[in-house]
Amino acid sequence: MILPIKFFERPVLDVAKEIIGASLVRRIPNGNTISSMLTEVEAYDGPEDLASHASKGRTLLTKQQCEL
Question: What is the C-alpha to C-alpha distance for residues 18 and 21, in angstroms, rounded to an integer?
Answer without folding.
Answer: 8
